[in-house]
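Troubleshooting log. The previous structure file for this entry was overwritten by mistake, so regenerating from the original sequence record. Sequence copied from the archived sheet and checked twice against the printout by T.R.
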Amino acid sequence: MADKDTLRERQRRRERPKKAPLTRQGILNAALTTLREEGLNKVTMRRIATALDTGPASIYVYFRDTEDLHVQILDALLGHVGTSPITGGTWQEQIKALLTRYRDVLFEYPEIARMALSTRLSGPNYLTLVDAALALLQEGGLPDREAAWGIDQLLLFTTAVAAEQSTRQAMPGAAEEELALAFEVAAVDAGQYPQIARLGNELLSGTGPDRFAWGLDVLLSGMRNTHRQVENPDPSTTTP
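Regenerated output below.
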């Protein structure tokens, strides 16, 4: 009897379809599917292992931990951002278009945008984005030192805008909250808050894209006109 059971089990294993070999791209594809269907909080090593009919240890061969997996999900989403050519316009317009692409990816996934604010990003697509932005800053004549620090400010600003706006719009009652803010500003006590009362309309004016583009202009202008201090200058070369 035991021999018959063993034979049946062997037969079932032979008839069972073979699993596709586990790959890094296959894991990312499963993680992206889970992100879109269930949200980032469900993208865990165990959850993806279950989806791929394997053990969590197999996922750790390709990704250091869940945070690393999340970072590489974002890198996969950025596949077209830095590689698709941007033609026409000035270098400022081109770098604004490049960063708008990056913002739009984050805007589509608020949880990813919030993750990007507090996590060191990496991956070939992210590095391609950074490299493309640095090339445009060089084309604009920015000194290397200012460009090296400035790219950090540009990406931080873009990520923060995407995280704030996408999270706010995804919240229930977002439109009502915006309307309540407008009423609050309109009803402010001019004696106690004279500047808010005077500039109330301006404080709430402009679309999200317009304010984002203006913010990038401010940063780019500042980068061109604010030079970094020399760190730890050699006293022997300092003019008295």
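The chain has two domains: 7-77, 91-225. Archived copy saved in two places this time.
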